[in-house]
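User: two proteins, same treatment. go.

Assistant:
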Amino acid sequence: MSQPAVKREPPRSFLARILYFCLHPVMLIIIAAVISAVFLAVPFGLLITPITLPDFAGPEQEAFWTLQKKLLDIENAQAASVTLTQSEFNAFLTGYQLPPEDGFCLQRLRCSTDNASATLYVIGSGFFMRSLVFQLGISVVDAQLRVERLQINSLSLSDTDWATRYVLQYLKNLAMKNAEGFVARIIEGKGKVEFADDLIVLKGEFMPVRPKQEAEELPTVEIETEQETADEAGN
């Protein structure tokens, strides 16, 4: 009995073979990695390149003394605002602390002002980078803080970039870890900050108010005189 003829598939064309090879999952991953390396090489290089920090105003030792006096004066007088120089404001920022969390370790905050705007430097380390600095260009619009510019190390991000929104939300979440801190109070609207020339004006509840301790009443001690003691002995 004769065997039925086996139908042979026509050989794939050269173009079809190349297309099949490129659509293989492993090749797709390799192609995506190559494209990412080409387009992200420059941004990644800027991201890991540390910057040279500017010469900040202070804080000198005298700035800590004058800052302490101003804060004590507004606490006693229950004033609503205090005006600080750049050096005094940097001394004020020295006391701000955050625990190492979410891959970032804060070392210090510094600020430089220019007329009605300022640049806040969030200086620290993290994400396998020994030096990680966030620069936030800040202005005040309708009594509200607005971030006009964001830079991570040497990489500048666009205002409309999705990465900018993500990084700002990340920094906001970090700041809220210290709910009683200066930055969290500004974000929540409890306190306000204004920039004018080389001065910084802090208003509202920009720092926790320590409750005043009531004076403790001392027990009354009656002191008997010698005459009263003699009279009691005679009785």
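Protein 2:
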Amino acid sequence: MLAAREAMVNAAKHAQVGEVSVYAEVEQEEVHVFVRDRGVGFDPDGVPRDRHGLADSVHGRMGRHGGAVQLRSTPGEGTEVHLTMPVDGRTAEQDEPAPTVRAQEETHS
């Protein structure tokens, strides 16, 4: 899920901590991904309306594919983003190209 990657990048940029935790749980009908940090946190209600980063990148991606996002954050205590995606045969992020993965060949002398 590109939304999970975006949540991780946001945590790395803004949490001001050296560690971000990522957990995944697979159930019969849903996949849950949790991205947590114990960083500076923020007040979600205090985010200016013109700041659309999380709304556009994470909420938008999940919503387009039947998923949901729950955000919990408290100043001084960190942030948790909980992503839920149905398991119904669709591939997540169908409208976006998958990242290219390249294998690296090792040579030993």
